[in-house]
Automatic annotation (TrEMBL):
<dbReference type="GO" id="GO:0000278">
    <property type="term" value="P:mitotic cell cycle"/>
</dbReference>
<dbReference type="InterPro" id="IPR001752">
    <property type="entry name" value="Kinesin_motor_dom"/>
</dbReference>
<feature type="domain" description="Kinesin motor">
    <location>
        <begin position="5"/>
        <end position="206"/>
    </location>
</feature>
<dbReference type="GO" id="GO:0008017">
    <property type="term" value="F:microtubule binding"/>
</dbReference>
<dbReference type="GO" id="GO:0005524">
    <property type="term" value="F:ATP binding"/>
</dbReference>
<dbReference type="GO" id="GO:0003777">
    <property type="term" value="F:microtubule motor activity"/>
</dbReference>
<dbReference type="GO" id="GO:0007018">
    <property type="term" value="P:microtubule-based movement"/>
</dbReference>
<dbReference type="InterPro" id="IPR027417">
    <property type="entry name" value="P-loop_NTPase"/>
</dbReference>
<dbReference type="Pfam" id="PF00225">
    <property type="entry name" value="Kinesin"/>
</dbReference>
<keyword id="KW-0547">Nucleotide-binding</keyword>
<keyword id="KW-0505">Motor protein</keyword>
<dbReference type="GO" id="GO:0005874">
    <property type="term" value="C:microtubule"/>
</dbReference>
<keyword id="KW-0067">ATP-binding</keyword>
<comment type="similarity">
    <text>Belongs to the TRAFAC class myosin-kinesin ATPase superfamily. Kinesin family.</text>
</comment>
<feature type="binding site">
    <location>
        <begin position="99"/>
        <end position="106"/>
    </location>
    <ligand>
        <name>ATP</name>
    </ligand>
</feature>
<dbReference type="InterPro" id="IPR036961">
    <property type="entry name" value="Kinesin_motor_dom_sf"/>
</dbReference>
<protein>
    <submittedName>
        <fullName>Kinesin-like protein</fullName>
    </submittedName>
</protein>
């Protein structure tokens, strides 16, 4: 992987039921070692002699790619863990999940009970780290949960809407009136997540 501060990871999901029902064809192959996603021409009658190579097959290279059989824990161990560990060493970090609807963002972030996503894996990682520290070290862990939608910031725990982005010498850039929740255990962190998640789901169905 590159040593750049920004890394781009691609995950390809399997065809879903709808795609299978109309005999959709998977035109993506991946080369994990090279970090490549290969988009093949859907028209198998075309050969490299018929069309310029770039039309026949397009290759995109990323810091890391994961195939349809990958598990959330594979993504975590091979990509996200180092980001979370960097936080425990005092760095700021962000994991940004992006993609069209139905591509697997929630599957990757939240996952399922037997295949938990990077949110729970990150919580485990943070508390595993804390458990290695001597009792003399005091850790203060605070959590907030926001949604940014149509340029508006909402606190998903308190339901306060339209929060402002501010800047000060002491705090740098921060969100005004954002609630922060002290978390002493993994359960405390999970409660903040669950409270915020409930609001998020309510908003999606409103
Ligand atoms: N890697 C994967 N392996 C197996 N199933 C997957 C994978 N990724 C996504 N899915 C399935 O595809 C469906 C859509 O995934 P998901 O809800 O995570 O998409 P999303 O990107 O969060 O969509 P939206 O933006 O609409 O919320 C779900 O049923 C999910 O279980």
């Amino acid at each position: 992987m590159s040593t750049e501060n920004i890394k781009v990871i691609v995950r390809c999901r399997p065809l879903n039921k709808r795609e299978i029902s109309f005999n959709a064809q998977n035109i993506i192959t991946i080369n994990s070692n090279a970090g490549q996603v290969i988009v093949n021409s859907p028209d198998k009658t075309k050969t490299q002699n018929d069309t310029p190579e770039e039309h026949f097959q397009q290759i995109f290279t990323f810091d890391k790619v994961f195939g349809t059989q990958s598990m959330n824990i594979d993504l975590f161990n091979q990509s996200f863990k180092s980001v979370v560990q960097a936080v425990t060493q005092g760095y700021n970090a962000c994991i940004f999940t992006y993609g069209q609807t139905g591509c697997g963002k929630t599957f990757t972030m939240t996952g399922e009970q037997s295949n938990v996503g990077y949110i729970v894996n990150s919580f485990d990682c943070i508390f595993d780290y804390i458990s290695t520290l001597p009792n003399s070290v005091q850790i203060v862990l605070k959590a907030s949960y926001i949604e940014i939608h149509n340029e508006k910031i909402k606190d998903l725990v308190t339901n306060l809407n339209d929060l402002s982005v501010n800047e000060s010498k002491e705090l740098g850039i921060y969100v005004g009136n954002l609630s922060e929740h002290l978390c002493y255990t993994k359960t405390d962190l999970q409660i903040v997540r669950q409270d915020g998640y409930k609001t998020e789901i309510q908003l999606q169905h409103a």
